[in-house]
Amino acid sequence: MNMNFQFNSLSDFISMAGHGPYVWVCYLVTAVALGYLLISPVMAKSQFLKSLARQERLAQAQPRTSSSSNETEQKEST
């Protein structure tokens, strides 16, 4: 089986008969978009987990009041 290459050299491959800049920019834009689509959910999950941990720490740090004492205060004020 004889393989014939489309391009004679690496520079011919990069230039692609004058269409190289367009083709390589398209590849770059696609790679950046796919990279963003892969990394974005991971970063969002990380930020969400940090926010959730911060909210839990704040909730544990605040003194809790019982609902019966709140009801008693409301009855006394009326």
- State the helix count: 3
Largest sheet, in brief, is: none
Summed over residues and divided by their number, the pLDDT gives a mean of 86
Structural class: mainly alpha
Approximate strand percentage: under 5%
- Indicate the radius of gyration in whole angstroms: 31 Å
Outline type: rod-shaped
State the distance separating the first and last CA atoms.
96 Å
Classify the helix fraction into a percent range.
over 70%
Strands, total number: 0
Q: N-to-C SSE series?
A: HHH
**Low-pLDDT stretches:** none
Give the key terms.
mainly alpha; 3 helices
Question: What secondary-structure arrangement, pairings included, does this model have?
Answer:
Layout: H1 10-15, H2 20-61, H3 67-77
Describe the fold and architecture.
The protein is mainly α and 78 residues long. The protein has helices at 10-15, 20-61, 67-77. The longest helix has 42 residues, at 20-61.
